[in-house]
Design goal:
The chain contains 4 helices and no strands. By secondary structure, the protein is mainly alpha-helical. Helix 1 packs antiparallel against helix 2, helix 1 runs parallel beside helix 4 and helix 3 packs across helix 4. The chain starts with a helix and ends with a helix.
Length: 142
């Protein structure tokens, strides 16, 4: 149990650092948009900005799933990376079909990844809402 907790805690930290990079990318994008004086009036530009923000957040989630999958593949005896990725995606999204189960020694990693996923989905939602709010407020003030 201690091995799984330590490994899970380390993955949570690596995951947060990785996700922070994606958030910094979105903040940089939005800062650049704001500094150019964009007021939010262009419909298609707003659509493009939100698509980019959403894609960055989705890519960040996929990176997190891959990170966990690598650990599942290396530590828990899941036979292929494809199965480890599938298992990781189930845990990260809290879907949890239960068709793949870790050994007793590593089973705590699943719920730890679910905690990670829930927290980061909340954080990405906040980032997307902040970007959208900025576009809406810019449009209302112009």
């Amino acid at each position: 149990m201690h091995s799984a907790l330590l490994l899970g805690a380390a993955l949570l930290v690596v995951s947060l650092v990785s996700f922070a990079v994606a958030i910094a990318l979105v903040v940089s994008l939005m800062s650049r948009v704001i500094r150019t004086g964009y007021s939010g009036e262009g419909f298609w530009k707003n659509v493009a900005i939100m698509i980019v923000v959403t894609l960055v957040m989705a890519a960040a989630h996929l990176v997190e799933i891959v990170l966990w999958a690598i650990v599942f593949r290396a530590s828990s005896g899941i036979s292929t990376f494809e199965k480890a990725f599938y298992f990781s995606a189930q845990n990260y999204t809290t879907l949890g079909y239960g068709d793949i189960v870790l050994s007793d020694r590593w089973r705590l990693l699943g719920p730890l990844e679910a905690i990670n996923g829930v927290l980061l989905f909340g954080l990405s939602t906040a980032v997307m809402f902040a970007a959208l709010s900025r576009l809406v407020s810019g449009r209302l003030h112009s």
